[in-house]
Structure formats: structure tokens, C-alpha cells
Amino acid sequence: MKDICIEFSDILPGYFSQNNSKANDCLDELVRKINNSTAEAIILFTKQSNFAAIIGAAVKYSLNRTWIASDTWSTSEKLSSLSGIEKAGEVFGFISKRNEVPGFKDYVISSMFNATTNAILNNYMTQFCPTKSEENRESNFPLKKTAKKILKCLDPMDLTNYIDQDASYHTYLAVEVIVEGLRSLLKCDHRQCKRSTNFTALEVQ
């Protein structure tokens, strides 16, 4: 592609999405930079909380640009439901291929019902359960129906419905890439590896 240049590049600080004067000053400076630039497209590789602040400002100040969304926030419901989003311009997003991790649902179910111990799953299953004091308080002072629903423990059979397919599949692919890199580096087959484990991180490709 020809006649394309990068006018500016910014690295957002960790406090960017916080609601304080320091973060607000940083956002104002970014808005001024975008408004004064001739850039027609803005690429945002950032987390959802940062994008929400930037796009909110883009709508407020009508920063009509073409926004390129990374897969972190391209499918965000906040974006599609944002009032006045047309004032910010057009938004194009990219997402990686969606799929299920092979055998993951079966593993989750077997980990819950085959008498195995899984601290992570147990914690997730009980994080919305009421404590003894809450149970006693509920018996003395009945809660509203919505509050009772929040305190109700998650049904084990429904646990697989709460799997974040995007996050789990991306993690699966990342691990697969590292495994294949190590297998190639160590010259491994299904039984053994020919090379020693003395190598640098840069050698894993």
C-alpha cells in the first residue's frame, strides 16, 4: 500500500481509564492531538475501559474519524449501544476465528462430577453462594427475589454455559503455539526429546 503514513503513536498509561484529574488530563491531551491531526484513521489496540473513555470523548467532541478496533473491544456491547456513536465516525473491527476448545466442556463436567478436586472451578461455583450469616439474615429478613437470585449457588450442570469461548480458545491457541515451538526446538516426538532443555527464550519461535 502506498501514500500511508503514521502521524502519531501514543502509549496509554495504566491509570488512563480511572476517574481522576490525572486520567482526565491524559484523555484531554489525546483528544486535542486527534482533533489537531490530519489522520483519517485511528487504530486502538487497548482494553475496553480505555476504548470506552476515548470513544465517549470522540462522540462528545464529534471527532469524525475511521476507528480501527482490535479484537479486545471490537465486539463490545458498549460500542454498539453507545448513543450518538455516528458522531465519532465509522468503526471497523477485527476478531480472530471463534471456536470451542476441543474437549473443554467435557473436562469441566468431569472435573465437577468425577470426585476430582479443582480449586478454580470450586471457587467459581461458590462465589455467589451466601455465607452462614447471610443465610441466617435471609431467614429473618426475606430478601427480594432479585437478591435471592444473586445469592443462589450456580447449578453445576449449567457451568459450561458460562465458559467464555473467546478467552478460552485464545488461551488454548497461545498454549498450542508455545508447545509446538518447544517441540520443534527440543526435537521431540511422542516419546522423547533429543535436545537438552538448556536454551534461551529467544530460541522459542
UniProtKB/TrEMBL annotation:
Top-rank taxon, per record: Eukaryota
Stretch forming the signal peptide: none
A Pfam short name: ANF_receptor
GO cellular component term, pick one: plasma membrane
Membrane topology classification: Multi-pass membrane protein
Cellular localisation: Cell membrane
Listed name of the protein: Receptor ligand binding region domain-containing protein
Organism in which the protein naturally occurs: Champsocephalus esox
